[in-house]
Every structure is written in C-alpha cells, then in structure tokens.
User: What shape does this take?
Amino acid sequence: SSLIKYPHFATFALHRDTPMDSITYINRKTGKLITEKPPGEGLLKFLYYHPLGELALRLVVKRKLISSLYGRIKNSRKSTKDIAQFVADLGIDMSEAEKPIHAFTSFNDFFYRKLKPEARPIGEDLVSPADAKLLAFKNAEAVGEFFVKGERFTLAKFLQNEELAEKHKNSALLIFRLAPNDYHRYHFPYAGTTSKSTKIKGRYFSVSPYALAPNFTRVFCENKREYMTLTTANKGDILLSPVGATMVGTIIETYTPNTLVEKGDEMGYFAFGGSTVVMLVDPQHFTIDADLLKNTKNGIETAVVMGEKIGK
Assistant: This one.
C-alpha cells in the first residue's frame, strides 16, 4: 500500500525478523502520514529487539516496582520543572487545557489535565472515547491475523472470562493507543448505563507499536487492565477496557457504576506514560467507518480525537 512507510503490523508477516524502524500513523483530516517520535524511542527499540534488552524487560521493566517509583517521581512538586520542555518537545497545544502550565502541581497533574469543553465537541453516532491512534477490526479473529508474531490473541485470554468472550466473539474490536503527548482522559462513546469495573492484575509492558509488533498477545493479555460494560438503550452492550503499561501503572476510574451516562461523559484517566483503551461493539448495531477499517487493513493507525465520529 502507498500508505505504508515501513513494513509493520499487517505487513510484518512478510518481514518476521525485521525490527520496526519507525512508528507512522495517518492524519485523518489531511490524509497525510505522520512519523511519531515517542520519548525514549531508543530505549524501546533496545528492550523489545535486543537480546540484552529482552533480559532487562523480563527482570525489571515489566514489574510494578519500576512503574510505581516512577509514578511517585511524577507526582512530586519538583516534577513541574519538566512540563514546559515536554510540551515544547511534543508540540502539545496548551490552549485546549483548562489550566496554564504554571498552575499544575506536578507532572502527573499536567499529564492527566482536563480540557476546555469546547476543545472536544461530541459528534454524532458512535464516537472515539479518547485522543489516540486507532486500529479497527471487524472482529477479534482479525486481530490474530494482523499481529502474526507470538502467541495467538483471543478474547478469552484478554478478558479472562469465557462467557463474556463468547458473547463478544463477533464484536468489532477497536484499539485506541494513547501516546505520551495525547490527552489522557477517556470518555464514554455512547449513552448508556454503566456496570461495575472488573480488574485484572498484570504486568507493565509498553503498549508502543515497538512492543506490540513482536508480540501483541503478551502485551495485552499480561498487562494490568480492567473492563466494564456500557448497556445502551437500543444498540446492545459496549465493552470498554483501559489497559495499563510501563510507567502507567495507575488506571483511575471517575465514573459511578450502575448509573446512566451521556455520550462524552468522562470514564477515567491514566497517569504518566502511553496506554490503551480497547473497545468492543456489536456490528449488528454499529458500522465502523470504512476509512478506519481500510487504514488498519493497510497496516497503519489512524489519529482520532475524543468525541470524533468513528461509526454509525
């Protein structure tokens, strides 16, 4: 495909021993390819593609202690000194934020900052729950065909619930990857009634494409995660699952279970780092936008923002 700058994801089957050289995604509004330069890119490549890096990953990085210690640092008052440079390096638009840079009490306070309501208008039909790079699949089986390396991905492994996996076996599956420069609060994609969240203990692998390409299943089925069900009035159930990652050991829920919520209401937020929200929707009630499915099939993520229409 002309969209693919370097073979990864869908084309990785043809280059099983070729490490990813870069991360690219498509700007949905302009149709242009963007190269992403995440903080610590060199370290990520070392950890997931070098034998010594793999050893360090198994012994240290994936464990909770590292993420917890880093979290404490980012919660300190001294960490505010890092905010301005982070904003400049990653090109973050602070005009969207409720507070100016000098008003934050820690780096994490800035990281899970709230935005002005007008910064993210809520679109029609099914909307994105987060600012993210999106991969969209017609069903979970398609995920296994897409990430060809490592153990086969199944909903039963991910949810650790055979009954729920069977219920959603034909559901469309969407993966919203939040990069460090993204807005890190996530919201409800449709109106409905919330359930209690089920928590699954786990590791802290990175959710960067550098980590996902060599073994998607290890990352998503071993990382700390939780899930809840949003029951809509007439469009079936939507399952939402925030997934923690390296340096993002904390998933904070801000919604109240067993209550009615409106589309765009806040569900929760992540502390420092990149992370992911996985969503399952009933294809009998929702059709995912064709461009999102096409881009995924061509092996590339699509940039979306919270409240943007992604299905009808």
Q: What stands out?
A: The longest strand covers residues 172-178.
